[in-house]
Amino acid sequence: MGTKIVGTGSYVPERVISNEQLELFLETSDEWIQSRTGIKERRISDTEDTSDLCAKAAKQILTNAGVDAKEVGFVIVATMSPDYLSPSTASLVQDKIGAHSVMSFDVNAACSGFIYALSIAEKLMQSGSFRYGLVLGGEVMSKIVDWNDRSTAVLFGDGAGGVLLEHTSEESFVLGEDIHADGSRGEALTAGKVAFSEKWGPQPATPLDLLQMDGRSIFDFAIRSVPKSIMDLTEKTGTQFEEVECIIAHQANYRILKAIAKKLKVPVELFASNIHKYGNTSAASIPILLDELVAGGELVLGSKKKVILTGFGGGLTWGSMLIQL
Ligand SMILES: O=C(O)C1CCN(c2ccc(-c3cc(CO)ccc3Cl)cn2)CC1
User: Fold this and answer.
1) Contacts of residue 223, Cβ cutoff 8 Å, sequence gap at least 6
2) Rounded to whole angstroms, what are the CA distances from 300 to 6, 241, 292, 303, 324?
């Protein structure tokens, strides 16, 4: 008894914002952004909320898989930029795609969110209680970014992606996982602090705080924790890098991918990358890249090829997963 990925999909807003357009109102430059992050442009949603992006990605996933929304047994959305605190973005997506009254909930693990959601979903599927499960990562980071803060505004973008899981008689697609958090360092990347009421507490009621990031410490954390997580995963599963088709890492910064590849002593080409087109879409970055590789034929569902997924970011959280397609 097991679980397999039977469909991928993604959706990004139409509006492209180039580095040059950011130069018009931020003290930054295309040269700085590209050389320090690898980002050339990003998608920005002006009217579509996180649930809208996720619903469009979900419809593509279901079409690609040839499965009707009414067959879906649960909907999980990984996001740090939900439409609301409540209702969950997942419940809004469930309604938008016409999935019956099924279990729907959000997972907030920032840029590791899709890894967390996929791990949770696989356990639900392994219970044998569901035939299909929909797992999405979606963000409208442009809602929570401080567009006056050049150190963060240039990094993020909007988008959604995901997979459809199906119960199967074969072994599970998850061959191993290594998932962590460290709340003691959570304040290195914050967004959306829900303030106390002015009536009862000393703090004045303020709008949800915008994203703030200690870039240096997050960068250093990533370079230290991600290689160790991947090494622990390959040791745990007895996997050689030669067996791995590619590594799909959270698209946070191209220099980080190079630094992780160097620490792992693997070619940087083992790491797929599309950060130049979308920037950092947090929980959406891994599923968008996975879908692009499947849509482009570089990866084939059902091929049994091995792929490593790895996420890292706010929480702090980090997690790696060895899957077979
Ligand atoms: O001065 C420079 O070179 C700057 C130095 C700071 N930079 C950073 C810092 C942190 C991140 C980042 C963000 C998240 C959140 O999803 C997760 C994981 C990471 Cl590693 C991305 N870039 C940009 C270039």
Assistant:
1) 256, 259, 260, 263
2) 10, 19, 11, 5, 10
Cα 318 to ligand 1 centroid, rounded to whole Å? 15
Does ligand 1 lie within 6 Å of residue 221's CB atom? no
Q: Is 127 helix (H, G, I), strand (E, B) or coil?
A: coil
Question: Could you tell me the distance, in angstroms and rounded to a whole number, from the CA of residue 274 to the centre of ligand 1?
Answer: 16
Helix (H, G, I), strand (E, B) or coil at 95: helix
The interface predicted TM-score of the complex, written ipTM, equals 0.96
d(CA 285, CA 271): 13
> Which residue's CA lies nearest to atom 13 of ligand 1?
252
Contact 325, 300 (CB under 8 A): yes
CB 218 less than 6 A from any atom of ligand 1:
yes
What is the set of active-site residues?
111, 250, 280
Whether this prediction's pTM lies above 0.90 is answered by: yes
Residue 135 CA to ligand 1 centre (angstroms): 26
pLDDT in the model for residue 206: 60
Residues of the chain with pLDDT under 70: 202-208
Render pLDDT for 23-51 as a digit per residue (tens, 0 to 9). 999 999 999 999 999 999 999 999 999 99
Cα 180 to Cα 91: distance, rounded to the nearest angstrom: 26
Q: Taking each helix axis from N to C terminus, what angle separates 285-295 and 113-126, rounded to the nearest 10 degrees?
A: 70
pLDDT tens for 81-96 read 999 999 999 999 999 9
> Residue 196: its pLDDT value, please?
77
Q: Cβ(154) to ligand 1 under 6 A?
A: no
Distance CA 189, CA 144 (A): 12
